[in-house]
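Schema walk-through. Below, the input block comes first and the output block second. Nothing else is stored per chain. Lengths vary across the set, and this one has 197 residues.
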Amino acid sequence: MGKADKSRTHGDTPNKARSAGYRVNAFITIFAGAAVAISLWINPLPNPWPAAAPTTIAPTVPANTVYRPLDASKAPTPTTVPQPPIGACSAWAGYALGYGWPAVEAPQLARIMHLESRCDPSAIGDNGNSYGLLQIHCPSWVKPNRFWPNGWAAANGYPITCNDLLDPVTNLAIGSLIWAGVPGSSGGWSNWTTYGK
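--- output ---
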């Protein structure tokens, strides 16, 4: 074997060494990254943005309203907010913005209310099981059941009865919690069978 042959037989050795070097470098990089992460977990960097001052929201809904759990400790401020007429779905959707609904959902909310109740807050359907503007199914969301011994609404801070869902403010508030995906709800419009029709 000549000199050229010898270099050929050992020609792959530098590549193997280089490959091992890459593995070592990768290990060091990963180890260093983990060390930085642990260091930041133990001693977090200061927040560059100043903390916002806590805000309180004064309730501006009628006195007979069921309040969200965070607002329940505040005394209600009676106001006279005129309710839209029966059948005025766009007006009801605008009214709902004051009770937890985002503005981007107003068109879909108007459509769902139209399909569910024809925008009649006193509507009772589904063989007496669904109530109000959004036809909230009382056995699922209000009454005690095998999943919610005190009822889903009560577990989320609304100890109400089915007839309370005939109050449009309560109906819209409970509907917004269902739509928002509060624990126990899958969230979104799929909770209403009229969605997609």
